[in-house]
Amino acid sequence: MGFMRVVLAIVRLLLAATFGVAGVAKLADPGGSRQSTIDFGVPVFLARVVALLLPLAELGCAAALIPVSSAWWGACGALALLVLFIAGIGVSLARGRRPNCHCFGQLHSSPIGWRTLARNAVLSGMAALVVWQGPENSGGSAVAWVGGLSGHEGLVAAIAVLAVFELWMFAAMLRQNGRLMLRLEAVEAKLGISAEAPAPGLPVNSPAPGFSLVGLDGGTVTLDMLRDGGKPLLLVFTEPGCSACDALLPELAHWQEDHAERLTIVPITRGGAEANRARMAEHEVQNVLLQTGGEPANAYRAASTPSAVLVTEGRVASPLAAGIDGIRALVASAVLPPPVKTGDLAPALRLVDLDGNATDLAPRRGRRMLLLFWNPSCGFCQQMLEDVKKWERNRPEGAPELLVISAGSSEANREQGFRSPVLLDQNFAAGQVFGAGGTPSAVMLDGDGRVASEVGVGAAAVMALAGAAPGKN
Fold it and tell me: How far apart are CA 424 and CA 261, in angstroms?
């Protein structure tokens, strides 16, 4: 058998094995296959038929690829299916959607990506090679080829098959172990057992270490004196020369002013009075205490700056929050207003926009506003992203303004391509206030800044609040 005939025979066997496994796996999981077709855009009323016909077509291609007489037709069918798969995957990725490919049923199901596209491109190239050679030259008979191997060649082939089998078994064991680990984690969570590294700082609910420090005015302040106010304390550890600490100072001043009735914010900084007085006065930061060494910082295990910890009733009430974003999240959770209901005035929450600027979530008087709670990593959000952007481009007359309140990083949210303002809510504090239990969800504010609707959960409910049906803009 010539070299090219051997290559074509191997390619056909590989394609037949791939399509055979894929077809059988899909038939074994009809529910998952049907959902996958819907996720890729197949209408619901056709999903059941497509989910049945697709694995049958794959099995037909697999069967046709093995005999020489039908191999060319099997390769044509395989190539057509693969081109269809590539088109569907490419369109979904271009729209920012990543549904589960469900290519091999329950054996392997994961969100599509460029790796999925590359895998199908390689298989397409293999099928195209068989098609290109023509119906009269689709390779030798696989059965005859195996039967014609010498003893040495047969041993090599057997070893190769055994190696592939071992690799497959190893991959199956890894998947099985992964499922076992997930179940074990669920059991640990139910029993309150955690194998994770302990949170930074002192354990929550442990006694808060006391201290006696000098303020910028020269007076001595102790932890017990700060507790006399009866409010929770936020101890913020900073130091001169720390650029992140300097960037935090304007927000510290705002927080001290905005949340004075609910929270006492106490910056504790290294260095002397002269080194800190000017930098704190520039932003009107109050209640600054000086530590000559690292006594309170060490006692609270604050190894880096800026960092912060919440203290209530003489006990540590939070893990140590490190960095500006962590401190913002801690402040937001500490001053979280009570949940609102329909008819209540929306509270003025302070969130950060995509440029890092702190912004008040204050309703614009006289204008209705739709608050959309979002998460770039939420698959359901990605499925409705194009509908939201179409609505933005062609906003109906009288429709509310849109304000996106999203988790995730600034970069991830910029990639979403919203025209409307986006505010970051990393710990979902605003969502909790408005009663949004997940994403995507939305709530309407009327022209007086009052909550004018129940929370709409899911794409259909969100678009209904916006005054549009999904896909109709």
Answer: 24
